[in-house]
Design goal:
With about 130 residues, this protein is of the alpha+beta class. The chain contains 4 helices and 9 strands, in the order βββαβββββααβα. The longest helix is centred in the last third of the chain and has 8 residues, at about 115-125.
Amino acid sequence: MNIPVELKYTKEHEWIRVEGNIGIVGITDFAQSELGDIVFVDLHKNKKEVKQGEVFGTIEAVKTVSDLYAPVSGKIVEFNSKLESTPEVVNKDPYGEGWLIKIELSNSEELNSLLDAEAYKSLIGK
């Protein structure tokens, strides 16, 4: 189970990597393995801004559909367009090519409420 130490995590299994004032968001390796084969990613492209904890899309696997939650508040500046034609990239590379959205952070203090790698490991029992 890959849980990079430089990322922050939500209890709902999203991760965020902050570069400057931009947060790159995806789902964790644990989440993609629990979901199984991902067949569709529906990102709410009409949504320009999100609040921390707000749903910004859904991810559909063969067995289930799960909501995607914003780890921080801010302006959505990019959606991963690769996922439209190849959603399975989330299974193959959840921390790289399988990212979901990029958010311009409106309140970097919200990062303090997220889990670090050790706390996330405890959450999932690893």
